[in-house]
Batch of 2 targets.
Target 1
Amino acid sequence: KAKLSRHGRAFLFTPSLRMQAVARRLYAMELHRAVDQGEFLLYYQPQVNLNTGALVGAEALLRWHHPARGVLTPISFIAALESGPLAAVVGSWVLDEACAQAAYWRRHGATGFRIGVNLFEAQFSVGDLVQEVMEVLARHGLPAEALELEITENIALDNDEIVLETLRKLKDNGVGIAFDDFGTGYASLSLLKTYPITRIKVDRSFVQGMLDHKQDDSVVSATLDIAHGFDLHTIAEGIENKGQCRYLKQKCCEEGQGYLFGKPMPASQFASLIGMKMASAA
Ligand code: C2E
Ligand code: MG
Ligand code: MG
Ligand code: MG
């Protein structure tokens, strides 16, 4: 909807506030329908051990199978979801669905398989997250070590006390806590000291720039050094080529995730990777 201004430059047509409000209400109604009709689904992206190339787990990633627009990635709906009342509901569903799937795969040959689940901030303020997680694990017969919850810096910064206390209990119960998108926020370093983290996920923006830009390289190198110094596990996101993979391995990054190993895919497709040793990561 670009219009040309008198100076010939394109500018975006700004809908009136009333139209924006209408659009937001429509989208909120669509999200309700999506929950009611079960239009959400999970894709799974492989996580591999960089030394052996073995498949070690997967990150569960939310998708919306929209009846008119097809399968949507979070970029087109996550802001709307997080600003409305449904984030906690969808988050609970994601946790349950991902754990059910992981338990199934572990029973069918993928022993030791781990599942990564991203948390919404709202999940910390509605109900008791610790109890919910422990019930889900028990229901599906999944050991706590097989679950890794992913949190971002904005979750850690708000609701400080509740989040801290909740994560501490989860970690004490054996659940893994990964610090997602590490390095993209302002307080990553200070949070590391206080938060009960078990793994750092090196953000893909740095991984993708590290071979060409020394700034990105220095963030990746420093992050891995810090992780080693804090005795934390490591995984790098967004590995797209063998050069990046080799470099990270050289820097003693334990695990990797990215298009090189596999894009996020439906469970049915992911199942064919299981039991099959993945091609060498090197
Ligand atoms: P994230 O947790 O950092 O997830 C990794 C994102 O990087 C995924 O995007 C994945 O598809 C993408 N990615 C992985 N490897 C590569 C690569 O090699 N190249 C490129 N270009 N991209 C790669 P996706 O699935 O679109 O998810 C985006 C974000 O939405 C996630 O970032 C996460 O913050 C959020 N999200 C997704 N699912 C959930 C969920 O179930 N709950 C919550 N709370 N947030 C979710
Ligand atoms: Mg994540
Ligand atoms: Mg991430
Ligand atoms: Mg990210």
Note: The first strand starts at residue 2 and ends at 4.
Target 2
Amino acid sequence: MLQFKLVLLGDSSVGKSSIVNRFVKDSFDEFRESTIGAAFLSQTVTIKDDDQDVTVKFEIWDTAGQERYKSLAPMYYRNSNAALVVYDITQADSLEKAQSWVHELKNKVDDNNLVIYLVGNKVDLTKDDEEKRVVDRDVAEKYAQENGLLFNEVSAKTGEGIQQIFQTIGENLYEV
Ligand code: GDP
Ligand code: MG
């Protein structure tokens, strides 16, 4: 079994804990308590290599987004193999915050194989009302391409795209 460390970064209330909760427990809370410091969880994915099933275990650090915890972040991302940098597609400044995390990761993490996945969460909110969207998918996708990041829009609420994030990261890390 392979093990990888993964960290979640992003502004508070973009849905980091909800994404982890969806992936690890396949559930969603409308009234989730905000994370204090950081939380640790783990979950596996199975990837296929020819006919063989390979189990990849993620050790996940879900950090708190608040400014007062910012100095703790390096402790969690320093030894990570992968980072999920999350924004909320209904909050414009959350993309800017995500971009500043990407910048920090690129400057501070030595591992050139660090996999960074930019995640636009809460896509469910735009299904009934497209006006709720304030971050264009194309803008975020272009930024991701230019910076060598994986990218998708997801919903922790409905589960759309969540499993795929971890599957893709597992496959990427397995190939490295
Ligand atoms: P964190 O601070 O980044 O960990 O964010 P949380 O996971 O605590 O979520 C903040 C709020 O956004 C909570 O009220 C969640 O229920 C809500 N939320 C999280 N993900 C989604 C989503 O995909 N869709 C919707 N509609 N709400 C979400
Ligand atoms: Mg949280």
Note: Residues 10, 12-18, 29-30, 32, 34-35, 65, 121-122, 124-125, 155-157 surround guanosine-5'-diphosphate (ligand 1) (CB under 6 Å).
